[in-house]
Specification:
The protein has 382 residues and is α+β, with helices and mostly antiparallel strands. The chain has helices at residues 14-30, 38-51, 70-83, 85-104, 111-118, 231-267, 279-307, 314-339, 349-358, 367-380; strands at 123-126, 142-146, 149-160, 167-173, 183-189, 195-200, 209-220, 224-225, 269-270, 273-274. A hairpin with an 8-residue loop joins strand 6 and strand 7. Helix 3 packs across helix 6, helix 4 (85-104) runs antiparallel to helix 6 (231-267) and helix 7 runs antiparallel to helix 8.
């Protein structure tokens, strides 16, 4: 079991410690998943997470007895990531995909949440396009008002859960104003005419990803989340919450790398004694431990700040994501080095972590974008 002393930090209540214990037991019993068929594995994980009550935390109704709690999301993601990246992915994307509905949807639209929380329906967040990744204001997919609804034309790419999702929250240009002010968000069921999976995308850490195509795909006006032109606000508010949880997943990867390194140092012998006796190995472990704790402090500061009523945690979430993902890459690299040849052997846990961490420095805002966000927040006095 990984070090859990951080749960005694003042960021957490007894309810958080109870969730941490429950997800730890669940992960130990259900992970790692079989990665031979990632689509089937993700469907199975979503169903199990829903069945066992963990998805109720991912996108609750605003007036639910247990409202959205970012610390809980982070604790769940950190634990799942420590056991298996695919387990973390299944939980995280369910929350991100349903997040805009939870935060901004009306009552009829929130009926979808009953299905996403139970694991009956898989959700996806469709923001990125071939020409607009971090530059959300440059979205080109058009939603043209027509009759009593909208017609969608264009593409999305690098969409997580693409190909297995039952509903997509799609951000499109409705044209109320130039740039970011002319975007709106829509709930798009996967089976509507005119919508298709144009391409499945493979990555070094496999999970369901796809390029989506919309060819005169019609949705009713009731599919719009919020008001026309609210799309950018909805996307940024959703990412403001879930960006901290990306940092938590990176923290989970780093904790596992540190655990595996300590185990390796204690049991692997070199020059007549354990690796742990070598000062250079001790120095690496010390640096890894400092990076893990520093990342945890930033992650749970951002989550605690949001849970305690802050309207936005743009700076705090950006700092957490930047630091946790970049330092997790360094921690895992040290783990690979200390494992020697085993560290690059296909299928070894630290080799898998090396592949798993890389994408987190890119998605939901690349590290370079986080630096811009942080600098702008500081310069504006926010």
């Amino acid at each position: 079991m990984s070090d859990s002393s951080f749960l005694n930090w003042p960021f957490f209540d007894d309810r958080h410690r109870a969730v941490a214990k429950a997800i730890e037991e669940w992960a130990a019993a259900n992970l790692p998943a079989d990665h031979g068929n990632v689509d089937a594995a993700c469907r199975d994980l979503v169903q199990k997470l829903g069945r066992d009550g963990f998805l109720k935390h991912s996108a609750p109704d605003p007036d639910a007895p247990a409202p959205l709690d970012v610390r809980t999301l982070c604790l769940i993601r950190e634990t799942l990531a420590r056991y298996d990246a695919l387990g973390d992915f299944a939980f995280a994307m369910q929350g991100l995909g349903a997040g805009p509905i939870s935060l901004f949807g009306n009552q009829p639209q929130r009926e979808w949440l009953k299905r996403t929380r139970s694991g009956e329906a898989i959700a996806a967040f469709a923001l990125t396009e071939p020409k607009s990744g971090s530059d959300v204001a440059n979205i080109e997919l058009i939603a043209q008002h027509y009759g009593t609804g909208y017609v969608l034309d264009g593409e999305k790419t690098w969409i997580s859960n693409g190909g297995i999702a039952d509903l997509y929250v799609v951000f499109a240009r409705t044209g109320e104003a130039p740039g970011a002010k002319g975007l709106s968000a829509f709930i798009v069921p996967a089976k509507i005419p005119g919508f298709s999976i144009a391409e499945r995308l493979d990555t070094i850490s496999p999970h369901p990803l796809a390029r989506l195509k919309f060819e005169r795909a019609c949705v009713p006006a009731t599919a719009m989340i919020g008001a026309p032109g609210d799309g950018f606000k909805i996307a940024m508010a959703t990412l403001d919450i879930f960006r901290s949880t990306v940092a938590a997943a990176a923290l989970g990867f780093a904790r596992r790398a540190l655990d595996e390194t300590i185990k390796r140092a204690r049991t692997r012998e070199l020059f007549g004694g354990p690796l742990a006796d070598l000062q250079m190995v001790q120095a690496s472990i010390a640096e890894m431990a400092v990076d893990v704790d520093a990342a945890a402090l930033l992650v749970y500061r951002a989550a605690w700040t949001k849970d305690n009523g802050a309207a936005r945690v743009t700076r705090e979430a950006a700092m957490a994501k930047l630091f946790a993902t970049e330092r997790a890459q360094k921690v895992i690299d040290k783990a690979v080095q200390i494992h020697g040849g085993d560290g690059v052997r296909s299928g070894h846990i630290v080799e898998r972590l090396y592949r798993d961490i890389r994408a987190l420095r890119i998605y939901e805002g690349a590290s370079e974008v986080q630096k811009i966000v942080i600098a702008r927040q500081m310069l504006s006095g926010a």
